[in-house]
Amino acid sequence: MTSERKSPIGPIIEGFIGSLLILFGSFGVGWLVSVSPIARHPWIIPLRTESEGVIVSTVALTLGCWVMFRAWLRLGRRLRGQDPADQWPEGSLRTVNLAAILWCAPQLFVIPIFSRDVFAYLNQGRLVLAGQDPYTTGVSTLDNWFHLGTDIVWAESETPYGPLFLWLEAATMRVSGDNPDLAIFLFRLACVGGVAMIMYYVPKLARLHGVDGARAQWITVANPLLIISFISSVHNDAIMVGFALAGIWAAAHGRGVLAVLLVVVSIGIKPITMVLLPFIGLLWAGPGSSWVRKFQYWFYTAGLAGMILLVVGLLQGYGFGWLAVLAGTGTGSTFWSPIGIVNGWLATLLGNLGIEYFWTLDTLKLVARVSSVIVVLYLMFRGSDDRIVKRMTWAFTALVVLSPIIQPWYLLWLLPLFAVTGIRRNWEFKWVVFTVAFFLAFGAMDQLSIYQFLEMEQQMVALSLAVSWICLAIMATVDPGTRWVVWTGWDLPRARLSLPWKRAATPVEPPLTTAEHHQIPAGEQEERSQGVR
């Protein structure tokens, strides 16, 4: 940073204003069930039933996302120092936490946006209370399931959630009764608890890896995509990630039994975090362990986790039904997933050649699943003991990236782990920024609740997209507070092109002497010895 550091108050206030804009916009185009009394408030009715109200709400919601996004980038710019080790000034963590809390506060009262999954929670809880098995039965067996806002894709679909979350769904519906707004608020409070756990453990895990805790917190918890996806959208992934981080922290401090218990809770919310267990076993075994000890602690980890989940399954009566759901890869693919991209190219090519391509997606799914298992096994057995969490992160990444369906909030499973193990200021951070921007733009236009009689859905999608493009163009070109993300600090590896027969003539740099090595700055020493963290 070349200019004098300024006060972070401006970005904090700006982010709060953006959050309020999202709150206002959600009343007009957020997902609101037809039986909700909120829909009958006099000032809500014109926002949802008149074209002017829908237009204003769409613009407010979309603009609010980009105001928060800009505030997030400006806050990091204000706080970061010139230290090459990315150590932020003292007190930065308190500032980031304050910003995150203020930006999250209005989202407690937002009408659900970006996703309708929370409405599936309502009916799945009703399924449990009705004595049915959500791992074999869709919500369409319930009376009035559609009136509670659940998307029709859940009508015949089994729940992909873990057994502990079924208990939470049932308890929430028992308490809320016939009040869906209360149920949504209770689910949101549970998600806020998950975000609080993330906020607590991210700085601790970052310091454990020699990473600045304030910067890791800023990248993760102050991130507008996390705030919207975990609180506004009420995704149970917040709880899953919170307990996973707690388990990793416990394992890193040798508290293996507690670590397994915490990760099992995470698995009980969404089973995908099963991939963490082998690495929890490695952390429990400790650095420098022999292979005999590693296998011993893998056995302890798997045995303890399996026993707990077996008891839960017996108490519920569903057994390990969630495993059968986990084994499926789902139907279809998202167009931005690597599987979806390759399948699109392959299907187009075969179609142009007049060859049947109905088999391509299933084949690619199988190849990707086998590949992800191979990557996980490789990282279990290969790698330095002081990089176990990094190995865990890449194993988790392989499962996500090689999945045919990648939802926007899946990034948030991985972001805390990458943040605590080190995301550099160069292209690595820019990759995070561009991914967040893409999913904010997509979410704002893709999930708008507009009454059909208005016949405005496509127009509002176009309007939201136009607002996003205008905001992005301004921030990338003329806005001094954000254009640096695009135009400076890429620090890409240099590509040297030379003729093959001339490469041998290139002088080879001799190894440094001990005295010369100690004259190099500490940050560069680490880069030379370890490469990218």
UniProtKB/TrEMBL annotation:
The keyword Calcium does not apply. This is Alpha-(1->6)-mannopyranosyltransferase A. PROSITE patterns: U_DNA_GLYCOSYLASE. It comes from the Bacteria. It is found in: Membrane. The chain crosses the membrane at residues 12-33, 53-73, 94-114, 182-203, 224-252, 258-285, 297-315, 335-359, 366-381, 393-419, 431-454, 460-478. Residues 512-533 are annotated as: Disordered. The keyword Nucleotide-binding does not apply. Belongs to the MptA/B family. InterPro entries: MptA/B-like (IPR049829), Ura-DNA_Glyclase_AS (IPR018085). Pfam families: MptA_B_family. Residues 515-533 have a biased composition (Basic and acidic residues). It is a multi-pass membrane protein. The active site is at D133 (proton acceptor). Keywords: Glycosyltransferase, Membrane, Transferase, Transmembrane, Transmembrane helix.
